[in-house]
Specification:
925 residues, alpha/beta, eight-stranded mixed sheet, seven-stranded mixed sheet, 23% strand, flat
Length: 925
């Protein structure tokens, strides 16, 4: 009875949020979750399958089987003092899954726990232990554990390597024939870098398996149990087979269900009958009997109701991923969402990634062969542009435009509703892909902005990333997309893109305009532009467009329409050889006759030999053309991209120059403010926020100040008072002059409305001010239980700022800074940052508001201590990044003086939170 009660209690405390589908080192997938009492048989099977050596290394003894008592103890944990995680994969035999790894800790005291791991012999080398350690450490930190210790036999080199290679500072020593080691599990720069690198390599490998597929299985809707396959699904399946065969005959293509069943007449509405038990299963299995493996990739055009069974069948062929072209999943409502989750569970349990639902397909045109597992019947030529699109509908005109412009395509992936594979996965792949120079992303939604920022920034430092979002706000959520709700303003998306270093554009036309110049020309060395045009009026217009695009016009020249080839060559060459010129825009629009192809060849040759970035607008030419192509000094073909209008050319060149400037600059170092004690902050928050709290907990002013003090931010003390006598007593204790403030929300921080009195010099003045402020406050609503007034020491004179951070469900912590006053509030003159930030990010944040010149000696005033303000911002940034429970924090005002910056008031709220990027995990629907 006691054992059953323990099991029931453990199940009631089961932390479902710790469940995660993960990508392993080889690109396959597995499921990580807390252990359950029902795992006893699976754990025993795992133990029995281990080699004698592995069992000895784990238990320091030979155990053929786990004793029943030990087995029950191992599977029954409280998910607090005793925690165990298992990694599992699906299995055909009962209980339907296999355990491939176990990690556990047993708490020794408040901060320390003993940790142990055991990984299946059959799955060694897949990174199972590393993933389990990462998730176990995250769970431990959530429970307040901050240090792991372990005892490992010296010959257990693999386990020692798991600890050593995790990026933590491991200390070890030999003791009684074992290696005793210990390490703090708070994230460090190195441990975060290790985790990010492992995530990068795993996800890149999973995409490499998709794009490098040489054996493809196409599954259509004519399957057992589907009485009336839809013509649409049949048409898609047949098109896929044809496109695969046409693109590269060397790709092995097999198909199932692409021919109508003999007794079935196609029905436009489709008909998905229920499964029919054993008979159905046998027929379904028989449909796949002729498929010979191994299969690299499966592409499905099947009814939504059939997709889970098809995925399970496909998994038996050895496929690494499935492309799901069908719709009818989460976008249709709760039943469709349940189907989508079933598909993902079946795929991830079998080690497969899922592209879709609603995918247009994937294309790869590499040197090793072509793969056209898409609905595109005509492809662009092979090249070095990588494209990702969530929308299948947009993929059609996008690929057509790439083909018309003569842009070369390396890879194209349409993720549809991105239930699993997203743009982040493709960016991980492109970061290592030598065959891709420029990346373009069309994002209908961003499911994990913090991860997007981290991955995009890494990629953008190596190659340009051009991003188009659905809607300028970037907060459009199409049906079927799993995106958390957000309260962040639209400008946060702009800041996310800026911090990431990506190039944000307004439409697909601009995306390809920018891709042309970045793919065909060298990166701009600067923003100084020369304009060469056949018309003075056009030259003036182009110069204006260039200035608007952020370029600096170094000169505008007119090249007469009737200039000889020699004169044209000399003038263009002179413009490009000018040391004060970094880039050039050349416009040639003859008034008489057609395209001037002779000039095009002249321009191509001069541009290629100059090594500078050149774009053109020429009658009759658009995109990348042979007429504007010539070899550079190394013999590499260089093409001057041609644009439909001079304004398009100027905008594309301006965005390219801005990207080149960002890439060349110093991006700073991670923030580590001296004296910041994030452990102490975490202990305070855990003490103030009950585990069962369902609502926000508002901190008192004293608690908010105490929390800020852990990271070295001091809040100038204030004394709450109710009347003049208390105010005088407080002022005498502080020392005159003082400030008197009302706590009424409508008048708080409002000196212009009489809510603040500064430089109060003596008792008499203070009593008079108390009477006036109380009378004024009586006209407004006050806060219950809060003293109506505060007395505070005078801060040094300076400019006042407002610093806030809010924990957003989608973005995580969002930092904002603005100068105090109505103008900033009404005009939205606020800058944003999304931690983690670098010192350069903080400097940019402080300088971004339009009113920021007030900090730097505006109109003859002395410059203020901006470094002190940056220090406060940095400390708040690391606090908000480390504590998801910090729902909101406001420092209002922060007074920046000639020396120092001080917060005069702070308000904070706490609430439980679950960040999307806390650990490596795939979407689960």
């Amino acid at each position: 009875m006691d054992e059953q009660v323990a099991r029931d209690e453990a199940e009631a405390r089961y932390p479902a949020a710790w469940e995660a589908d993960v990508v392993l080192q080889d690109g396959g997938t597995a499921r990580v979750r807390p252990i359950r009492p029902s795992d006893a048989d699976a754990l025993q099977a795992f133990h029995v399958a281990q080699s004698e050596r592995s069992t000895y290394l784990r238990f320091f003894a030979h155990l053929e089987r786990l004793p029943e008592r030990d087995l029950r103890r191992l599977v029954t944990v409280d998910h607090d003092a005793r925690v165990a995680l298992v990694a599992t994969v699906d299995d055909d035999e009962a209980p339907g899954y296999r355990i491939i790894g176990v990690a556990r800790y047993d708490r020794l005291d408040d901060d320390e726990a003993e940790v142990a791991f055991n990984v299946s012999d059959a799955h060694q080398g897949r990174g199972v232990g590393s993933v389990l350690l990462e998730h176990l450490a995250a769970a431990a930190r959530e429970r307040g554990v901050r240090r792991f210790v372990a005892e490992v036999l010296p010959q257990n080199g693999r386990m020692l390597a798991v600890f050593r290679d995790a990026g933590y500072e491991v200390r070890q020593h030999a003791e009684d024939g074992v290696v005793a080691l210990g390490f703090d599990i708070d994230p460090t720069d190195r441990s975060l870098a290790v985790m990010a690198d492992r995530e990068h390599r795993s996800e890149a490998r999973s995409m490499r398996a998709v794009l490098g597929a040489r054996s493809v299985l196409v599954v259509g809707p004519a399957l057992p149990g589907t009485a009336h396959p839809r013509r649409l699904h049949l048409g898609i399946a047949r098109a896929l087979v044809a496109h695969l065969a046409l693109a590269d005959p060397a790709v092995r293509v097999q198909s199932v269900g692409t021919d109508p069943l003999p007794e079935a007449a196609p029905d436009e509405n489709g008909g998905d009958e229920a499964d029919h038990g054993a008979a159905f299963t046998a027929a379904f299995t028989a449909a796949f009997a002729h498929v010979t493996g191994p299969v690299d990739l499966a592409v499905l055009a099947v009814p939504a109701a059939r997709a889970p069974a098809v995925v399970r069948a496909v998994a038996q062929t050895g496929a690494r991923a499935v492309v799901l072209t069908s719709t009818g999943f989460a976008e249709t409502g709760p039943e469709g969402l349940a189907l989508q989750r079933e598909v993902l569970a079946a795929a991830h349990g079998a080690g497969l990634r899922v592209i879709g639902p609603g995918s247009y397909g994937v294309v790869s045109l590499g040197e090793d062969g072509a793969l056209n597992a898409s609905l595109a019947d005509e492809l662009p030529r092979p090249g070095r542009l990588g494209l990702f699109s969530q929308s299948a509908a947009l993929a059609v005109p996008l690929l057509a435009a790439v083909r018309r412009r003569g842009l070369g395509l390396a890879e194209f992936v349409s993720a549809g509703h991105r239930a699993d594979v997203s743009g982040n996965d493709l960016m991980q792949f492109w970061a290592d892909d030598d065959g891709t120079d420029v990346v373009g992303l069309y994002l209908e939604s961003i499911g994990n902005p913090r991860k997007f920022s981290r991955v995009a920034r890494r990629l953008a430092l190596a190659k340009p990333v051009i991003v188009l979002t659905a809607g300028r706000s970037g907060h459009v959520v199409p049906p079927g997309h799993a995106v958390r709700a957000t309260q962040a303003p639209a400008r946060v998306v702009d800041e996310l893109m800026r911090q990431s270093g990506v190039i944000r554009v307004e439409n697909t036309h601009q995306m390809l305009d920018v891709a042309q110049v970045l793919g065909a020309q060298p990166l701009p060395a600067g923003r100084r532009v020369a304009v060469v045009s056949s018309s003075s009026s056009v030259a003036a217009l182009v110069a204006e467009a260039a200035s608007t695009a952020g370029l600096v016009v170094a000169g505008a020249q007119v090249l007469p329409e009737d200039a000889s080839d020699e004169a044209a060559h000399a003038q263009v060459r002179a413009a490009l050889e000018d040391d004060d010129v970094d880039v050039a825009i050349v416009v040639r629009i003859p008034l008489v006759g057609g395209p001037d192809l002779a000039f095009a060849r002249t321009l191509a040759g001069v541009a290629a030999s100059s090594g500078k970035t050149v774009v053109a607008c020429m009658l009759g030419l658009h995109g990348l053309t042979d007429e504007l192509t010539a070899p550079d000094a190394d013999g590499t073909p260089r093409t001057v991209p041609a644009y439909a209008t001079p304004e398009d050319a100027a905008l594309a060149l301006g965005l390219a120059a801005r990207y080149a400037s960002w890439r060349a600059r110093d991006h700073g170092r991670p923030l580590h403010p001296e004296g910041a004690d994030l452990r102490a902050a975490g202990r305070l928050v855990r003490g103030w926020l009950p585990a069962a709290a369902e609502r926000e907990v508002e901190l008192t002013a004293a608690q908010a100040a105490q929390l800020l003090a852990t990271v070295g931010v001091d809040v100038l003390a204030s004394t709450p008072v109710h009347d003049a006598d208390e105010a005088v007593a407080a002022a005498r204790a502080i020392g005159y002059p003082v400030a008197l403030k009302t706590t009424v929300p409508a008048l708080r921080h409002r000196a212009d409305l009489g809510g603040i009195r500064l430089d109060v010099a003596d008792d008499v003045e203070l009593r008079a001010d108390v009477a006036e402020v109380l009378a004024l406050a009586a006209q407004h609503r006050s806060e219950a239980g809060v003293a109506p007034l505060e007395v505070q020491a005078m801060a040094p004179r300076g400019s006042s700022c407002v610093l806030r951070t809010v924990e957003d469900p989608l973005y995580g912590p969002v930092l904002s800074l603005g100068m105090s006053g109505d103008a900033s509030d009404l005009l939205g003159d606020v800058s944003y940052g999304i931690p983690p930030l670098t010192d350069v990010d903080v400097a940019d944040l402080v300088r971004a508001p339009r009113a920021a010149p007030r900090l730097f000696g505006y109109r003859g005033l002395p410059p203020l201590d901006v470094a002190a303000l940056e220090d406060v911002v940095a400390r708040v940034a690391v606090l908000s990044d480390a504590l998801p429970e910090l729902r909101s924090l406001e420092l209002n005002p922060v007074v920046v003086a000639e020396r120092g910056a001080v917060a005069l008031a702070a308000r904070a709220t706490l609430a439980h939170a679950d960040r999307a990027d806390a650990t490596r995990r795939l979407q689960r629907g």
